[in-house]
Amino acid sequence: IQNPSSLPPLFVPLLPSQPLPLSPAAPIKTPAMRAKPLQKRKPQARRRLAVKVDTKKPKKPPTAFFYFLEDFRKTFKEENPNVKSMREIGKACGEKWKTMPFGEKVKYYDIATEKRAEFEKAMAEFIRRKENGEESEESEDEYK
Description:
The protein is mainly α. It has a domain at 64-134: DNA Binding (I), subunit A (Orthogonal Bundle). Helices cover 47% and strands 0% of the residues. It has helices at 64-79, 86-99, 102-132, 137-142. α1 (64-79) crosses α2 and α1 crosses α3. The longest helix has 31 residues, at 102-132. It is flat. The termini are far apart.
């Protein structure tokens, strides 16, 4: 046999460190065919479709907790003027809300249910006007 470097590339024998394939279906893995380490892909930003937001649609009212948070924030800032982090205020408010008896929460639940009822009336009116076509596209063009 001649020197393997002088032979054409098709006739290069297998290296002794490589085992022979056991079946004809098993591929021969040469150093060039070895799997490369997987490279992590950078996540592509998902493009969101532009959703038309109806500016005349009523907004949902806040929950009872948010009405409590409003009151609690005022008193907490008076008691702790040096604390300015919303994170710390939120944590303290959450703890207070969890430990607060239901009797004290009723005040905030009442406010929230009143606001919810107003929202549902406004939403029903909005849907009725939209179905009747009272808010036509012509009126939207006036604002542009």
